[in-house]
Amino acid sequence: MNQWLDDRLHISRLNDKFLRKAFPVHHSFFLGEITLFCLIVLILSGIILALSYEPSARLVADPTNPGGDLVPAAYASTLNINAMPFGDMTRRIHHWSANLMMAAAVLHMMRIYFTGAFKRPREINWWIGMLLLIFTALTAVTGYSLPFDNYAFTTLKVIAGIAASVPWVGPWVAEAAFAGRFPGDGLIPRVYGYHIMLLPGILLGLTAAHMLLMIKQKHTQPRYAARLAYKKIVGVPLLGQQTPIMLMLALLMTGLVVLFSAFIPAHSIEYFGPPSDQTPIIKPDWYLLWIFGILAMLPGSLEFTVLGGVFNAEFIGGMVIPGLVVGLMFAVPLLDRSDENVYYAENPTEHPARLAAGVAFIMLMLVWSVAGYKAELENAGILNPAWSIPVLWAIAVALPAIGYFVTILIARAIARSSRRSERRLRPGAADD
Amino acid sequence: MTKFRRYDKEMSRRRFVTVAMGGTATAGILSLLPVLGAARPVYRLTPARLPAIGGDILVHAASDRLGEPVTVDDLSETPIRAWPAREDPEAGELVVKSEEPNNLLVVMRFADGGGEAQGVVALSAICTHLGCQVNDNAAQQPGTLLCPCHSGLYQANTGERISGPQPRALPELSLAVGDGGAINVTGAFAEPPYGTTEGDWNTLVREAEQA
């Protein structure tokens, strides 16, 4: 069989080039794989959901109350999916896999950042990874808009509002992106098209590029590899050894997601009901909460006009500041100016400034996310409404700054003590 | 690098291919660009999408009383939702202007009010920040309206902004209470509501008045 295929397809070349790719063995190297497995689970469960979902805002009878008010077909079909055998379960698996994919991607990115794996020659893969993160978030947001309950409706309204706030071209952009003045008849088919075709297509293309570059450039090697065989690739080959590990990991992950889904429901659309003239109290999912927080922390008086274009708080909070944050993340490989290719994963504490900048960035994101609960904090009496905006901005500056300096001090102390103990234990040994 | 210079005026093969490829690629991409315009459907202004103007009445927006005229007796300090509606002179039917979601109103009646409106206040129900509908906020702070999207707080009897990210106050309709307690609109919003610019708003109001 192998011989037969090899005669025709030259499998052995493929084998040498790709299937024998060495995978370093270290637990932190599995975060990217978990992201990939989530994508596969999402595509499979998404196909099942798409088979029964009706992407339309056409008004139909409410399946839970056939004599009552008409509801959008998208909402009704989501209720019907819930009532199918394993329908609700499929929705839950899809929902929680999406959350896990975002979480694993963020952790994977932290691993790359803190160990310096983004450095030359792997800058391109950092940028592709950034695009993957952005498009994963976009896919997730368009996904939770599809059930078209009042939550989805409000979410879409806010997104369309932010799109329309772009100076000069905003209203045109919002109408082109969301099929006419909000909420147009074409809204749900449009978002559906984005969610099941355009965005997953982009995600798959970017994932393929991410994998190919990783195979071409090889993983950064874990530190222990330097001790085993200096400047040699250490790891287990893809076919034969890494594959069973991956399979086990994929099955374990899927099993845990299914178990989790069995106990924790996804967002309940009956609770929010179909779109109505009441706005529910909503928060975006955790990975977009920071943008929500920025919007809550900007005063409405922030508005100025340049050459006829209106720059308002929605544009600044919903696009400019997030754009700067994402731009900063894109620029990370450019901040390192070394001419040498990085070969081994670096110890985070040996790069105190980078470590501290990362910690400060994460703290800033957390403060912004907590600011998304500004109204709740005010109602609970923790924040005074008159002072909440300046207080939150002060915390957003102070906490990351404190985090930065404390991390530098801790990292320096660790580096000093490890150098001391190294000298004492193994005089002349290479660091690992 | 080249030892021999070409003196003939003929175009080199490389240059020809570069120019030809660049030219065709540019023309091809430009010809595809108008397709993007198709992503934005045409917006047709129907009578049910026109804004509220003088001569309209207010009708209930709640689904159990949808389309019934609002009367003074229905109102209290707790806001109710209403649509503007206008008699179609040809068909003799009431056209509820509910196809434009930004036409939604909150209507309240405050005891201390006098004048033609008898204390009735109708504000745009659409938050000027990102277009969510404002809700009653009596549980937290009586006399205010709250937009739950980004917690914009408004004064309920005037629509003025108290706190939050919204740039402007909620625009207010001028009203008069007519026979049998019906609520008559006597003038459009002075300020454009959410979703319209100043210039578009004036055009819209003119369109509505001519319709």
Percent helix range of chain A: 55-70%
Mean residue pLDDT of chain B: 87
Identify the strand order in the major beta sheet of chain A: 1-4
Low-pLDDT parts of chain A are none
- Helix and strand run of chain B: HEEEEEEEEEEEH
What is the subunit organization of this protein? heterodimer
Counting helices, strands and paired strands, the structural category of chain B is alpha+beta
Your description of this structure?
With 432 residues, chain A is mainly alpha-helical. Chain A has a two-stranded antiparallel ribbon with strand order 1-4. Chain A has a two-stranded antiparallel sheet with strand order 2-3. In chain A, helix 3 packs across helix 11, helix 6 runs antiparallel to helix 9 and helix 6 runs antiparallel to helix 14. Chain B contains 2 helices and 11 strands. The chains are: A mainly alpha (432), B alpha+beta (211). The interface between A and B is large, with 44 and 38 residues.
